[in-house]
C-alpha cells in the first residue's frame, strides 16, 4: 500500500536510496498498524474459555467494517492532511482507516485456535506469550508480503516502467476491498463451530 | 466513481504535454452591466473542424449580476493521482464563482456540447460557512477544492480579512475556512502550490471597495493596494513567511509556480509600479529554508499624448503596460505576460528563472495603439486572461479585465474577443489569422479553460523525468 508515494519521494530526491527509505517507512507504518490491532486480541485470548465469542465478535467486526466501507465510499480526508514527508504515519493511518489490521484478526484467531487445540491445556501465561508471538509472526508475514509486492511495483516503475505505468496499472479496488473484508469475516464465522 | 483513473490524469508535466491536444475551450462570458445573465461559452479549437474558432454551445446562468471572472476544474492531475484519497474522480465539473454575487456554479461538462448546471451554491451559504465573500481562484488540492476570496464578511466585504475556503470535491459542500494561522495576510488574490514540497504561495489585489466600483486612483497613488507575497505551510495551514515587494509595487496578482515539483521557484506579476508606471515580473524561490523574491523583468510605460488617453491617465502622458495576467508553459520554459494597457503579449524564455529573456511579442489592441488582429478586426481592449495549451504550442487569450476597470481604461463597449497565437519551435509568437472568436452582443470575455487541463490549473505530484 502506498508504493506510488515511494516512487514520488525517490523522483523528488533524484535518489534511489530515497526509494528504499520510503518503502521501509511505509512498511514500518503498516506493521505498526497490524500490531496495534492484533495485540489487543492476543491479550484477549487469555480468556481462553471465551475464545468462541471473541472469534464471533471479531468476524462480525470485520463484516461490519466491510459493509460500512461498501456504503460509505468516501475516503478519509484526514489522510490528506499528512505531509508527504511523513510516510510512516501516512501508512499507519491508511492501514487503520482501511481495516487492513482488522482483516488479519479472524485469520490470526484461527491460527491460535488451531495451535491451542494441539497444545491442550498449557499454563495461561505460556498461552499468552505464545499468542503474542503468533501475532508478531502474522503481522510480519503480512507486512513482508505487502512490502514485497508494493516494492516490486515501485522499483519497476522507478527504474523501467516509468510513470505512465501509474495511470495504466491503477484500479479502483475500493469495492473489492470492502467485499473481501465481508468474505473473510463470513468465512471465519463459518469456521467457528 | 471510475474503475480506472480519468484519462486526463497526467502523472507529470511532461506526460501532460504528450497527451492529446485540446479540441474545446471553455470561456467565461460576463455581462458588464448585469443586464443579461453571465454564461459559459464552449469554443471549438480543433483546427480540422468546420466550426473552428466558433462558440458551439453556451450555458447561460439563471441569475444576473454574478460577474464571472476566474474558474477551475473540480479535479486536476494532482487529485486524480493515486493515493490522494479521491483518485477515481473525473475531471468533469467546472467550478465558476461570481466575483460580484459570491454565488458559485458547478457546471457539468462531461458532454461538453450538452454542458449543464449541476449545482448552485448560493452566496448566503458561502457567507455563513466561511465569513468570506467574492470567490476568485479555484484549485483542487489535498483536502478538496480550494477557493480564494477577495472579501471578508459584511456588505462591502471589509468585515475581517479575505482568505481561502475549502469545498468538498465530491459533494461540493462548502466546508469552511482554510487558514489556521494567517499571520499578517489581510488581502487576497491568487494562490498556488507545490504539493510534494507542501507549500503554498498567495498574493494580494485589494479589498472590495478598492475594485468593485472601479480602480480608486487615490488608493493607488498612496500605495494602498496589495504588494506582498505570502508563503504557507500548505498542510499545516500556516503562513510561514511574508515578503513585501515594496509598497510602490501595486497589485501583486497571478502566482505561477514551476510546474515540475522538483523546482522550488515561481513567478508573480505586478500590475504597476507607482513611481514610474512600469509593470514587473518577480521570481520567488526557496533557498536555505527561506523564501526570497526578486524583480527579474520590468516593462516600461509608453509615452502617449494626453488626448489619446482616458481621463485617469491623461496627467501621466504615458500608457502603463498594466501586467494583468501571466502564465507559464508546462515545461517551465516560456512565461507569457499580458500587457493589457499597451496591448502587447510578451513571451519570455525563463529557462533561467532569474534571467528571463524576451523571446516573442505580439501587438494587439491597446489603449493607444489599438493594433488590429491580422484578420483586420479590432481587438477592443488589450490582451488579458491568457491560457497555454498543454503541449505549449498554442496560446489563447481574451480581452476584458474587470467590468468597471474596463470602462475606466477603455471607455465604451468595445466587444468581447478571444484570439490564439502559435508558438515557434524556439519561441516566437504569431497570431493565428483564422482564429478570432466573436461573442454574443453585450458580453465581455474572461478566463479560458482547456479540455483535459491547461497550464494554470494542473498541479502535479511527480517530477518530469
UniProtKB/TrEMBL annotation, chain B:
Superkingdom: Bacteria
InterPro entries, sorted: Se-bd (IPR008826)
Pfam families in the cross-refs: SBP56 (PF05694)
Entry's family note: Belongs to the selenium-binding protein family.
Protein name from the UniProt record: Selenium-binding family protein
Species in which this protein is naturally found: Defluviimonas salinarum
Upper classification of the organism: Bacteria, Pseudomonadati, Pseudomonadota, Alphaproteobacteria, Rhodobacterales
